[in-house]
Amino acid sequence: MAEEDSSQEKTEEATPRRLEKAREEGDVPRSRELSTFTVLMAGAVGLWVFGDRIVNSVIGMMKDNLSIERAAIYDTKQMAIHLASAANEVVLALVPLMGVLTVAAIIGPLGLGGWNFASKAIMPKGSRINPISGLKRMFSMRSLVELVKGLLKVTLVGGLAVLIMDWYQTEILFLPMESMESALAHSANIILWSAIALSASTLIIAAIDVPYQIYEHAKKLKMSMQDIKDEFKETEGKPEVKRKVRQLQMEMAQRRMMGDVPDADVIITNPTHYSVALKYDPSISSAPIMLAKGADQIALKIREIGNEYDIPILEAPPLARSIYYNTEIGDEIPEGLYVAIAQVLAYIFQMDQYMAGRGPKPKDPKDFPIPDDLQHE
């Protein structure tokens, strides 16, 4: 996009092209709070689902390592075996939970912005290590918002943690009086519901952050009218260039069209304005096809080519105008003109016979049946 003009206010919504370029550069709305909530909540649910398995694994590991036979204490090989067994037990117990957390971390960004891999986003930029740019980011409105969010998270989560501790205070104090298995199970239950409550509290932060990130992203990508004009020029091309391209295309089309005129069977003209060249080949189409048409200078050129190649030229102004305005090059003539064109072709055939000395001279046709909806003044 052209260099942005800071003198113009950016009041217009981003165009689809602007949004596409921003996405290619990795600039999409993101909410770390939403991703954090997703991971924490997935972890809490994972504890709820796999908690019993984890607690049983911990209990089994502690039993194995706290009830060692006397002979094994003096055998270093046995200690290594116990350590390997304990590590294997812990890994097997935590793998399902780690899997849940991994999946949550991967699908978390889908909530806002979706997956987006942009190579441009990881390319080194001088502005990222520029001290002045760094200071601007430190004292920007975005940094202030991040600070407020951080304080809000600490206050909310910390305050809820205090309430949870107060709620479970009596149960926590009596844990040492329970058996080891009962204490571990009870502790796991307290940890589980505390984790669920603390994770759920981050939803409040995410609910505030997501709309803000969407608003901030849209605001950052807003454009001025000059930006939109510059983008249009880049995507659609400058008007003078487009005019030149159209002119060249028209010239090429005219050259192709003029190249087809020698194949015409007849040229029908309005002597001062229009010319149309027609060809009828029953093996190709059921009706005559227009090979070329033109007005003024192009019409004159068509007649010149017709004279050069001895193509019959018939003056029939109403019919020439009707064909010119109702038929495109390469198309068959309208059905309403079949009778008129049949009369023209019949006249051309009779004229050929007369020129060959095989018949009388035909009368020039004057009136052709043209339906009202195909007439053109």
Task: Describe the structure in your own words.
This protein is mainly alpha-helical. The chain is built from 14 helices and four strands. Helix 2 runs antiparallel to helix 4 (about 75-105) and helix 7 (about 140-165) packs antiparallel against helix 9. The longest helix has about 40 residues, at about 180-220. Residues about 1-5 have low confidence and may be disordered. It is found in: Cell membrane. Required for formation of the rod structure in the basal body of the flagellar apparatus. Together with FliI and FliH, may constitute the export apparatus of flagellin.
Task: Supply the key terms.
4 strands; disordered N terminus; 377 residues; four-stranded mixed sheet; mainly alpha; 6% strand
Helices and strands in order:
Blueprint: H1 16-24, H2 32-66, H3 70-73, H4 76-107, H5 126-129, H6 131-138, H7 141-167, H8 169-173, H9 180-220, H10 225-236, H11 239-260, E1 266-270, E2 274-279, E3 289-295, H12 297-308, E4 313-315, H13 317-326, H14 338-355
Parallel strand pairs: 1-4
Antiparallel strand pairs: 1-2, 2-3
Q: Which structural class is indicated by helix and strand composition?
A: mainly alpha
* Shape call: elongated
Q: For the largest sheet, list the strands in their spatial order.
A: 3-2-1-4
The secondary-structure element order is HHHHHHHHHHHEEEHEHH
Number of helices: 14
Q: Report strand %.
A: 5-15%
Gyration radius, in Å: 43 Å
- Approximate helicity band: 55-70%
What is the residue-averaged pLDDT? 78
The low-pLDDT segments are: 1-7
Described by strand count, sense and barrel closure, the largest sheet is:
4 strands, mixed
What is the tally of beta strands? 4
Distance between the termini: 49 Å
Family: Belongs to the type III secretion exporter family.
Function: Required for formation of the rod structure in the basal body of the flagellar apparatus. Together with FliI and FliH, may constitute the export apparatus of flagellin.
Keywords: Bacterial flagellum biogenesis, Bacterial flagellum protein export, Cell membrane, Cell projection, Cilium, Flagellum, Membrane, Protein transport, Transmembrane, Transmembrane helix, Transport
Region (Disordered): 1-29
